[in-house]
Design goal:
Helix content is about 0%, strand content about 45%. It is an all-beta fold and about 110 residues long. Strands 4-3-2-1-5 form a 5-stranded antiparallel sheet, with no helix packed on it. Strand 2 and strand 3 form a beta hairpin. It is globular.
Length: about 110
Protein backbone atom coordinates (compact mmCIF):
# COMPACT_ATOMS: atom_id res chain seq x y z
CA UNK A 1 0.00 0.00 0.00
CA UNK A 2 1.45 3.38 -0.94
CA UNK A 3 1.45 6.57 1.13
CA UNK A 4 -1.68 7.97 -0.56
CA UNK A 5 -3.88 5.45 1.22
CA UNK A 6 -2.57 6.33 4.65
CA UNK A 7 -3.88 9.92 4.67
CA UNK A 8 -7.15 10.63 6.44
CA UNK A 9 -9.44 12.07 3.75
CA UNK A 10 -12.29 12.95 6.09
CA UNK A 11 -13.17 16.61 5.45
CA UNK A 12 -12.03 18.86 8.29
CA UNK A 13 -15.10 20.76 9.60
CA UNK A 14 -12.88 23.74 10.51
CA UNK A 15 -12.02 24.30 6.83
CA UNK A 16 -14.59 26.57 5.22
CA UNK A 17 -15.49 26.26 1.55
CA UNK A 18 -13.30 28.65 -0.45
CA UNK A 19 -12.45 29.49 -4.06
CA UNK A 20 -9.52 31.17 -5.81
CA UNK A 21 -9.66 34.91 -5.22
CA UNK A 22 -10.86 34.57 -1.64
CA UNK A 23 -8.82 36.04 1.20
CA UNK A 24 -8.31 33.34 3.83
CA UNK A 25 -6.71 32.92 7.25
CA UNK A 26 -4.95 29.55 7.41
CA UNK A 27 -4.18 28.29 10.93
CA UNK A 28 -1.10 26.07 10.85
CA UNK A 29 0.22 23.90 13.66
CA UNK A 30 3.94 24.63 14.10
CA UNK A 31 6.10 22.31 16.21
CA UNK A 32 9.32 23.81 17.60
CA UNK A 33 11.26 21.31 19.65
CA UNK A 34 8.82 19.97 22.24
CA UNK A 35 6.47 22.97 22.04
CA UNK A 36 3.66 23.46 19.57
CA UNK A 37 1.81 26.61 18.61
CA UNK A 38 -0.64 27.88 16.00
CA UNK A 39 0.60 30.27 13.34
CA UNK A 40 -1.75 32.19 11.04
CA UNK A 41 -0.97 32.82 7.38
CA UNK A 42 -3.40 35.26 5.75
CA UNK A 43 -3.54 35.95 2.03
CA UNK A 44 -5.31 35.46 -1.29
CA UNK A 45 -5.94 31.96 -2.64
CA UNK A 46 -4.25 31.92 -6.05
CA UNK A 47 -4.99 28.29 -6.92
CA UNK A 48 -6.72 25.10 -5.83
CA UNK A 49 -5.69 21.82 -7.40
CA UNK A 50 -6.45 18.15 -7.14
CA UNK A 51 -8.98 16.16 -5.18
CA UNK A 52 -8.72 13.50 -2.53
CA UNK A 53 -5.67 13.21 -0.27
CA UNK A 54 -3.32 15.09 -2.61
CA UNK A 55 -5.47 18.22 -2.95
CA UNK A 56 -3.56 21.46 -2.37
CA UNK A 57 -4.17 25.19 -2.39
CA UNK A 58 -1.73 28.09 -2.66
CA UNK A 59 -2.02 31.31 -0.69
CA UNK A 60 -0.15 34.51 -1.55
CA UNK A 61 0.45 37.48 0.68
CA UNK A 62 2.63 40.56 0.34
CA UNK A 63 4.55 41.63 3.45
CA UNK A 64 6.97 44.57 3.40
CA UNK A 65 6.77 44.64 -0.43
CA UNK A 66 7.90 41.00 -0.62
CA UNK A 67 5.47 38.45 -2.03
CA UNK A 68 5.29 35.16 -0.12
CA UNK A 69 3.43 32.13 -1.45
CA UNK A 70 2.76 28.99 0.51
CA UNK A 71 1.15 25.79 -0.68
CA UNK A 72 -0.88 23.74 1.81
CA UNK A 73 -2.30 20.24 1.68
CA UNK A 74 -6.02 20.53 2.40
CA UNK A 75 -6.07 17.19 4.28
CA UNK A 76 -2.84 17.78 6.20
CA UNK A 77 -3.01 17.46 9.99
CA UNK A 78 -0.85 20.61 10.27
CA UNK A 79 -3.64 22.71 8.71
CA UNK A 80 -5.96 23.27 11.67
CA UNK A 81 -8.48 25.65 10.08
CA UNK A 82 -9.15 27.81 7.04
CA UNK A 83 -11.39 30.85 7.56
CA UNK A 84 -12.61 33.00 4.68
CA UNK A 85 -12.37 36.70 5.55
CA UNK A 86 -13.31 38.06 2.11
CA UNK A 87 -14.87 36.55 -1.01
CA UNK A 88 -13.13 37.64 -4.21
CA UNK A 89 -14.75 38.14 -7.60
CA UNK A 90 -12.42 36.61 -10.20
CA UNK A 91 -12.97 35.16 -13.67
CA UNK A 92 -10.32 32.45 -13.71
CA UNK A 93 -9.16 29.54 -11.59
CA UNK A 94 -5.42 30.32 -11.53
CA UNK A 95 -4.41 33.78 -10.35
CA UNK A 96 -0.68 33.62 -11.11
CA UNK A 97 -0.93 36.99 -12.87
CA UNK A 98 -1.04 38.60 -9.39
CA UNK A 99 2.71 37.92 -9.10
CA UNK A 100 3.42 40.63 -11.67
CA UNK A 101 1.11 43.19 -10.07
CA UNK A 102 1.56 45.33 -6.99
CA UNK A 103 -0.43 47.74 -4.87
CA UNK A 104 -3.76 48.88 -6.22
CA UNK A 105 -3.57 46.75 -9.38
CA UNK A 106 -3.25 43.57 -7.31
CA UNK A 107 -6.57 44.20 -5.56
CA UNK A 108 -9.43 41.80 -6.16
CA UNK A 109 -12.99 43.16 -6.06
CA UNK A 110 -15.28 41.69 -3.40
CA UNK A 111 -18.03 39.24 -4.36
CA UNK A 112 -21.38 40.33 -2.92
Amino acid sequence: MDAHHLVNVEPNPAIQDFQPGDTVRVSIRVIEGDRQRTQIFEGVVIRKRGSGPGATFSVRRVTHEVGVERTFLIHSPTVEAVRVTRRGKVRRARLHYLRGLSGRQARIPERR
